[in-house]
Amino acid sequence: MADPVFFEWDDKYSVRVPSIDRQHKVLIDYINQLQQELTQPEPSKRMVGLVLKFLIDYTNSHFKYEEMLFGMHQYPEQEDHKAVHNRLFDKVAVFKQRFENDDPTVGPDLLAFLKDWLNHHILIEDMAYSDHLVEKNVQ
Ligand SMILES: [Fe+2]
Ligand SMILES: [Fe+2]
Question: Has residue 21 been placed in a domain?
């Protein structure tokens, strides 16, 4: 695989809710760790599996956290946003399955998917709740 291009935090990703920005930074960190391991000449299945597990668990709690804030602050688009979370989570579960089945193409596919997800989900879908939560003074 080519030299990894790590995903870097940029202020354009800020949803102006500090607790959520912090969680997004952790997600970026996990994705970079996964990339670091997957781009080794011989990636360790144990390591990749471990980081993937952390990433999935963290994503799950991050989605729950956002959804809790939506509920607390009556975010009008919450049902649509939850549906997007569920779809993303289902896709990650398929990747996990492929990884467990030793699918040799899973690595690059997974990284491309995760980067697109961060870019698209944070910049477009998460950004859509930004004004609403900032107005409610969510920290
Ligand atoms: Fe998010
Ligand atoms: Fe979200």
Answer: no
